[in-house]
């Protein structure tokens, strides 16, 4: 690669800023739907399953692909340590703030390894792969994504090791982006960057293309250049707006939909480690126990945490009963709420 080419690729690429901006807008759309669910305006199943869940995974993947792509561009001629550590500490500090804030507001599902935690990890770990050829990175990244579900083990159960993504137990978190399989997307992004550099594609990109030069592109590019600030600010703003709206037009609770969502989410979480029949008994037992205690609606809407106090006692007791019930009697003895 010529010196001129290296110089050109060292310049900021407006198109990458626009792509980051697109990812941020998509993320805000997803969070808006999640917030509507949190306040009871839409069912939780609609934002936690199906197309909406796929949408969320596509957003996370796009962020991490861009992280890998940019990591290669920033350090292709050697690691610029001062700039690297300055940016890394900002991301790590923001991730810590997210953990502390969510632990305070939603302790049952706080964010201990979300997208910012993954970016901080990947930014460090990715440095070890900077000199690996593009094809090898592509193969390794794809292998991590494909094989991660088959590498789970109970030896890594517990929050202290759940950041790996290789634990066998189910993890409750409002944003969970563990090392495996998500670091694979970063490696694929690094491979794409190396392919783009070696082919001369980036050097041929104009500094002002039609998209980034448009008004919409300008706004998206601005968001992309200030991606960390945008990430930290957008969710509090959305929550504040929806909360203000809820004070004037509170959500109407659909009891039937609430019970359906609870049963579905409970069953899905339980079946990760237990049989379908056992989970049917457990979820029915929990629902009946919460009803008897007058806590079903507060727990189902998120007003009361499921893993603390009386709800936790009910869950623990139902877990004990679930394993005491003979396999062929689980369905017959399912408690009715």
Total number of strands? 0
Rounded Rg = 23 Å
Estimate the global geometry from the Cα principal axes. globular
The count of helical stretches stands at 15
Average predicted confidence as pLDDT: 86
Structural class: mainly alpha
Distance between the termini: 70 Å
Q: What sequence of helices (H) and strands (E) makes up the elements?
A: HHHHHHHHHHHHHHH
- Proportion of residues in extended strands: under 5%
Helix content: 55-70%
Major sheet: none
User: Could you name the ranges where pLDDT drops below 50 across 5 or more consecutive residues?
Assistant: 1-9, 328-337
Topology of helices and strands:
Blueprint lengths: L2 H8 L3 H25 L5 H5 L1 H26 L5 H25 L9 H11 L8 H14 L31 H21 L1 H4 L10 H11 L1 H22 L6 H16 L5 H17 L3 H5 L8 H16 L13
Helix pairs in contact: 2-4, 2-10, 2-11, 4-6, 4-8, 5-6, 7-8, 12-13, 13-15
Structure description:
The structure is a single chain. The chain has 337 residues and is an all-alpha fold. The protein has 15 helices and no strands. α2 packs antiparallel against α4 and α2 runs parallel beside α11. The longest helix has 26 residues. The N terminus and C terminus are likely disordered.
């Amino acid at each position: 690669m010529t010196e001129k080419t290296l110089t050109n690729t060292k310049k900021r690429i407006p198109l990458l800023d626009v792509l980051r901006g697109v990812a941020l807008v998509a993320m805000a759309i997803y969070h808006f739907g999640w917030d509507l669910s949190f306040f009871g305006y839409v069912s939780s199943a609609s934002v936690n399953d199906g197309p909406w869940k796929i949408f969320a995974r596509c957003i996370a993947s796009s962020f991490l692909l861009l992280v890998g792509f940019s990591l290669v561009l920033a350090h292709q001629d050697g690691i610029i340590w001062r700039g690297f550590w300055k940016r890394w500490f900002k991301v790590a500090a923001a991730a810590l703030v997210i953990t502390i804030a969510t632990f305070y507001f939603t302790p049952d599902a706080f964010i201990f390894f979300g997208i910012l935690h993954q970016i901080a990890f990947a930014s460090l770990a990715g440095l070890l792969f900077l000199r690996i050829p593009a094809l090898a990175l592509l193969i390794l990244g794809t292998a991590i994504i494909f094989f991660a579900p088959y590498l789970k083990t109970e030896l890594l159960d517990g929050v202290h090791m759940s950041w790996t993504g290789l634990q066998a137990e189910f993890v409750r978190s409002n944003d969970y982006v563990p090392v495996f399989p998500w670091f694979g997307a970063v490696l694929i992004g690094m491979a794409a960057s190396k392919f783009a550099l070696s082919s001369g594609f980036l050097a041929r990109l104009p500094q002002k293309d039609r998209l980034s030069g448009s008004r919409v592109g300008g706004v998206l590019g601005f968001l992309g250049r200030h991606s960390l600030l945008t990430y930290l600010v957008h969710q509090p703003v959305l929550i504040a707006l929806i909360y203000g709206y809820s004070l004037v037009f509170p959500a109407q609770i659909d009891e039937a939909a609430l019970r359906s969502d609870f049963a579905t989410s409970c069953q899905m979480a339980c079946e990760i480690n237990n049989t379908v029949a056992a989970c049917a008994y457990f979820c029915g037992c929990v629902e009946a126990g919460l009803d008897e205690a007058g806590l079903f609606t507060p727990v189902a809407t998120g007003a009361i945490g499921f893993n603390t106090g009386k709800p936790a006692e009910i869950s623990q007791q139902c877990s004990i009963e679930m394993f005491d019930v003979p396999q062929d009697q689980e369905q017959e003895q399912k408690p009715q709420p």
